[in-house]
Amino acid sequence: MSTSIPLAVKDRRLGYLLLAPTILILAAVVVYPLVYSLLLSFHNLNIDNPARGTVFTGLSNYIEVFVSQDWWQALVRTFYFVAADLLIGIPLGMGIALLLNRDLRLRGIVFAVILFPYVLAPIVNSLIWKLIYDPNYGLLNGLLLRFGLIKEYIPWLSNPTLSIVMLIIANLWQGTPFSVVLFLTGLKSIPQEEYEAAAIDGASRFASFRFITFPHLLPIVYMNVVMKTILTFKLFDIIYSLTGGGPAGSTQVVNMLIYKESFEYMKFGVAAAMSYILLILVLGLVVVYSRIFREET
Amino acid sequence: MKKRDRLFNFFVALLILIVLTSILLPLYWTLKVSVSPEREIHSLPMRWTVSALYVKNYQEIFLSTAKAVGTAFTFKMGIINSLIIGATSTILTVLFGSLGAYAITRLKVRFSQLMTFFVLLTQMLPPVLLVIPLYMMGNTLGMLNTKRLLALSYMALNLPLCIWILRGYFKTLPSEIEDSALVDGCGRLGALFKIVLPMSGPALFTAGLFVFIAAWNEFLFALVFTSNLDAKTMTVAMAEMIGRFRTDYGLMATSGILGSILPLIFVTFFQRYLVSGITGGAVKQ
Q1: pTM over 0.90
Q2: Under an 8 A CB cutoff, do A11 and B122 touch?
Q3: Which of A129, B76, B209, B258 has the greatest CB tally within 10 Å of its CB?
Q4: Domains and CATH numbers, chain A
Q5: DSSP category for residue B200
Q6: Contact A271 B118 (CB under 8 A)
Q7: Set of chain A residues whose Cβ sits within 8 Å of the Cβ of B45
């Protein structure tokens, strides 16, 4: 009888060894900070008053968040961005995918161009729109004036009502290609026979969209809704670099508020509480979506 | 009927043209500003073209030296730092990711479900949640303003997705070839490096592309962790330019173009891999 270790056990040991770097890195950079943040959210570091040191303050950070007007306003503004992504970005992405879902000349180049905004850094996206929205030398004012649509230059980003709309447009420009790719993949997986059968029955273009294409795309719509919500709740870069949350706080989304709370006001405990509330909110939304989706299908 | 079809095709072509224009026009404008002399940037009414190609902004960035630390030099160092951080995190993530994915698919490690959880977690987490404690850790360990901290962060954020992509690919490889290699006395590690990895080129490349683009484009961690030229990245240097009260538009546009070249090359030539990564990564949800 062999006394050596069975192969399966040996394999498993090697397996954990191979996973060790991943486990260590995730433990240090994801798990530990998550725990640290959770603890932080129940403490006050008293950075402004070091003599008092770190004090356990129970739920007071969370209470401070819930009574903070800034928090609720930032949350509502974040929802504007999410709503625009879901109600404009997803239908737009589906529309563009439907346009492209045919034998195109130069297909490779067209698809690459569609993906351009997706691969650019959000900071580059900011830079591009800064050049477009600039009140004096920007492309937008230049174009509108040339076509006689405005008489004088509009300061797009320094007007509190306009600035959020302008940021939403910039965000849609960058975010929509992702939806297009998802929808195109969905469209490719629809069996062609269904269209052929519909054509024999004399179905119109609209009817075959309504009864074949759309039902097949529903899971993709759901996937889009989930991913877009998650992504838009992370929105930070373009806000920070284009308006810094202004003018007059009109574009301050939650991530911008959390950033300021921590790195400008040094209220790390409150900021940690805010980030946890944000995480729970996103998780909650995803659960709600999956319930709705399951009932629909 | 035929006439109606032609009309329909015409409208489709028109709409596609509108979509392409709305994507390309902002990029063209940035490129145009980057090669315009200052008086043409500021000329009224706006001009569509440049009178002559003006490359002074590009020269200013490429030829800038440490002797005069200005916006141009900061950006140049940012590009260099971003390249180093991006390359390091890409190579290490793909290496550790391959080891991890192999362990999960072939070595019966009970980590598969936990890994799925980590994929979801790292995708869903608002990054601000990690940035605050990591900043404090970095401060305690004296790791702020180092490329290491950023590379390590990007590895952690991308490892789960990388393992996910590779695991999906490894599963499609027939295990018979590996088994015969094992019988021939080639150990598990030999099988991984001599058989599995050489067969996984496309998946390794896809994973690598994603990690590199994510690291190259990342902003929040870089903003919080770096404050000097030792580790300041391309995106942070660019944001400083955008945020200036008196912005040099020519130089700013040039930095935008320089920061976009790599991602645009990737998407033009390796579009297939990116799309498979997006959809492969999306299916997990």
Answers
A1: yes
A2: no
A3: A129
A4: 67-296 (1.10.3720.10)
A5: T
A6: no
A7: 142, 145-146
